């Protein structure tokens, strides 16, 4: 049976790149994002190009009812099968700690951590059931089920003016660790992919400081996600850091 994935933040940037990469691998998908029109355009493209089933589930990850509805739509469409929950939706706003508005912290917390936590919680029964299925009919591999979260290198190494964003991404890394501790023996594991600056609309403000050819591409991140979901259930990868050339992960 075809593997399925629910991808949030799928209308552009990293989420869209992940959708394209998995569709090219024959996955059936549910694409979620706040704005319906770009989702429809991408879904039509993937159906035509790869012949896969693609559902769209518009919803605001800052709204609890929308998050619930996104999960429900995927599980209904694919009879409760969920091989990969890809948490790509995210938002970031820069500002020093001293003057950062708490309302902006609350919004980043809602989108970057609360929604992923809720989706993991609501999808866990389906992830467990999918992980219990037999080996892949073609490859013979028992993949289990995966949660893959797009985190950030700032969740590992602090950067000035990104305290709120970094804190939510560090929490996302911790959430993946907790999923592994609680669920990996049953075949459900989680991986946080933590890239540095990725060349997307969200980082366009960096183009005057960092050459675009030196930035990580959305396709780089998508390739790492595809690699993780191709592993057997015996391989648990808690996190993957992606840095640009010449950078250091850990500071002395």
Helix percent band? 40-55%
User: Count of helical segments?
Assistant: 6
Q: How big a fraction of the residues is strand?
A: 5-15%
Number of strands: 7
Strand order of the largest sheet: 3-2-1-4-5-6-7
- Indicate the low-confidence ranges by residue numbers: none
End-to-end distance: 49 Å
User: So what's the oligomer here?
Assistant: single chain
Helices and strands, in order, run as EHEHEHEHEHEHE
For the largest beta-sheet, the strand count, sense and barrel status come to: 7 strands, parallel
Mean pLDDT over the residues: 92
Taken from the alpha-carbon principal axes, the silhouette is globular
Radius of gyration of CA atoms, rounded to a whole number: 17 Å
Q: Structural class from helices and strands?
A: alpha/beta
Keywords:
alpha/beta, seven-stranded parallel β-sheet, 6 helices, 41% helix, globular
Describe the protein in words.
This protein is an alpha/beta fold and 252 residues long. Helices cover 41% and strands 13% of the residues. It contains 6 helices and 7 strands; from the N terminus they run E-H-E-H-E-H-E-H-E-H-E-H-E. The protein has a 7-stranded parallel sheet, with helices on both faces. Strand 2, helix 2 and strand 3 form a beta-alpha-beta unit. Helix 1 runs parallel beside helix 2 (36-50), helix 3 (64-77) runs parallel beside helix 4 (102-131) and helix 4 (102-131) packs parallel to helix 5. The longest helix is centred in the middle third of the chain and has 30 residues, at 102-131. It is globular and about 55 Å long.
């Amino acid at each position: 049976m075809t593997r399925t994935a629910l991808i949030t933040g799928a209308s552009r940037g990293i989420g869209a790149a992940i959708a394209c990469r998995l569709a090219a691998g024959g996955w059936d998908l549910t694409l979620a994002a706040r704005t319906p029109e770009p989702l429809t355009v991408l879904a039509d493209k993937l159906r035509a190009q790869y012949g896969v089933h693609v559902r769209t589930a518009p919803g605001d990850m800052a709204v609890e009812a929308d998050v619930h509805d996104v999960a429900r739509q995927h599980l209904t469409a694919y009879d409760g099968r969920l091989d990969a929950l890809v948490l790509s939706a995210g938002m970031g706003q820069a500002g020093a700690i001293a003057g950062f508005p708490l309302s902006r912290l609350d919004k980043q917390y809602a989108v970057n951590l609360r929604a992923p936590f809720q989706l993991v919680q609501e999808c866990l029964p389906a992830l467990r059931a999918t992980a219990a299925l037999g080996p892949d009919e073609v490859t013979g591999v028992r993949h289990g089920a995966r949660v893959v979260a797009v985190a950030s290198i700032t969740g590992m190494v602090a950067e000035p003016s990104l305290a709120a964003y970094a804190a939510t991404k560090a929490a996302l890394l911790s959430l993946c660790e907790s999923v592994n501790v609680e669920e990996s023996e049953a075949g459900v594991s989680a991986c946080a992919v933590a890239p540095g600056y990725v060349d997307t609309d969200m980082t366009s403000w960096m183009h005057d400081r960092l050459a675009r050819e030196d930035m990580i591409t959305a396709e780089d991140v998508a390739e790492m996600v595809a690699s993780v979901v191709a592993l057997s259930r015996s391989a648990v990868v808690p996190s993957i850091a992606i840095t640009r050339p010449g950078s250091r992960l850990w500071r002395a």
